[in-house]
Amino acid sequence: MTTEEIPWLEWGADAFARAAAEQKPVLLAIGAAWCRGTEEMDRVSYRDPAVVQLVTERFIPIRIDADRRPDVSERYTLGGWPTTAFLTPAGEILGGGTNLESGPLAVVLVQVATAFAARRAEIDRRVVEPTGGGRDTGTGFEPGAQELDEDAGRWLDEQLLAQFDETWGGFGSEPKRVYADALAAALLRCRDTTNPDLTRVVTHTLDAIAERGLWDPVEGGFFRYCERRDWSEPHVEKVLTLNARLLELYLSASQLLDRSDYADQAAAIIRFVHGTFADPDGGFCASQRADPAYAALSSLEARRGRAVPPIDRTVYTDATAVMASAYMLGSSILGDRSLVEFAATSIDRVVMETYERGGGVGHNATGAPVARGLLTDHVTISAALLDLYDLTGQDVYLDMPRELMSYCEQSMWDEVGGFTDRARANLTGHDAPVGLLREPHRPLGLNCRAAIVLARLAVCADEPRYRDQAVRTLACQTPVYREHGLDGAAYVLALDQIEATDGV
Questions:
Q1: What pLDDT digit, counting tens, does each position of 436-461 carry?
Q2: Are 19 and 25 in contact (CB under 8 A)?
Q3: pTM here?
Q4: How far apart are CA 442 and CA 361, in angstroms?
């Protein structure tokens, strides 16, 4: 049997049941709409007749978008996107890698299919006695031993200064990426300690990000990251969430450091976002695909002669919520009332279109399929709703985050180490969790943001129980946050918010 293209299936129990029934391995392709490598592999490798025939005859092919299914991507991505992963019918990882050209891919497909057929007995034993062949998602935490680390701020100061690139700004050598939580926490430490060294870390880094290769000087917007230490050779996809985090950073820095040029940079980010990503019906599109040849053109006139890189117009709940919060901060600092109005429209849209009573919110307001029960959506939309409550005082914007965080506590709380990234599934059939989705993953950053939301609820609702839950949530991360290096700054941000609620 041959076809002209691979008959991809959606992730789900049905696809894995078919793999078990037909005794075939699973080919899991993970990509992203903004990823040029994903587009190239779809256009070339997965269109090669030999590859199509091998996949169709000897594998069960499943593909996901990493943005659409972050829970699957978290567990199965191997070194970046596109990922080509080979799984057992039970969802364990046999092996895999990233981008493969059609020739090498065909060779690997034959090797995997042959090895799978020859090792069926061994693989069947692994299914009966699972090895936990995925990543370690535990925390090393022992219930009952939680305390907050009051020394976290000083630890972060040491990390910031030790990893700061004195020459080019940013942290580490290469590739250079934005550590948004570290910079946000550094701003707080500047405020609290008036340490000139920390101020230099923040300003040198924000100056470099705005003035060097990460910013598109022609059409605006930040690229995702840069290959070189001096912020050159950018990967030129533009992702909504990164632009949202940088918008928040420039707005906060403009206020805390009294830098009008940072306010100007924030206004430029908003112009780009509103012109490129804002959906007329509310919400924000997710990303714009990388096109290095287009990005290399240094004028609008030159770019008008080429096709504009495609935009992924999916409106994701979490990404829209993060940008809506940044818009509301922009409204307050820049004095633009239209920003909060669009933010409110965006939040209303994703809540109304994805919310189910007793089932929380869905991951995307446009496109299908729609994942449900993800911690990222509930935490970020709750934070945005609380921002709206702070600005408007309308009770509806307080009632919904209370309900959503209650849903998280009921369906995602794990005494072993805080919130898991997805609801515990008591589902059957097509929606039953398979493979590594059965294993709990307790993300540091999202648990810290959940602690911030709960601490804010304690103040807004005047209910101390929310503060108690915030402390419990953050304390679960105390044993592990330092293992995450600069990303452990999320712990410091949450600790600052909890300390602000003393006396609630």
A1: 999 999 999 999 999 999 999 999 99
A2: yes
A3: 0.94
A4: 19
